Fold this sequence. Notes:
Elements lengths: L14 H27 L5 H12 L3 E2 H8 L3 H13 L3 E5 L7 E5 L1 H25 L1 H14 L2 H12 L3
Antiparallel strand pairs: 1-3, 2-3
Helix pairs in contact: 1-5, 2-5
Amino acid sequence: xxxxxxxxxxxxxxxxxxxxxxxxxxxxxxxxxxxxxxxxxxxxxxxxxxxxxxxxxxxxxxxxxxxxxxxxxxxxxxxxxxxxxxxxxxxxxxxxxxxxxxxxxxxxxxxxxxxxxxxxxxxxxxxxxxxxxxxxxxxxxxxxxxxxxxxxxxxxxxxxxxxxx
Length: 165
């Protein structure tokens, strides 16, 4: 059947076209994570540490509960990751001013530097891919990704994006 062209009717995608899309997602994710994985491997950290660093950088002062909702991991799993990041001086946990039971998470200078190294690698790959694909493809890609999100996660995603404005 060959490559899909822009005018092809997307209501009648074949199983083969869908399989190709699924496989492309797998291989793209490997590429997307390869650069940070190489950096993390030298530090005995994994992708869970990277995701935590990313969202703590993205939402400074976020609570542990908010991070749990974003990452979709167990409290035990997140606590293990946070304990390591805090002990290694990358993340700081501060007691909430209004609710003392809350813990607000912030990156330290070292944590921000590591997060920047990890993100710079991903941004460079994403920038090159976006430039190669062009603006229409970028907009379409974002639409496809959002359409694949669970409704609750899509709302969370939009809330994080709107916090920039």
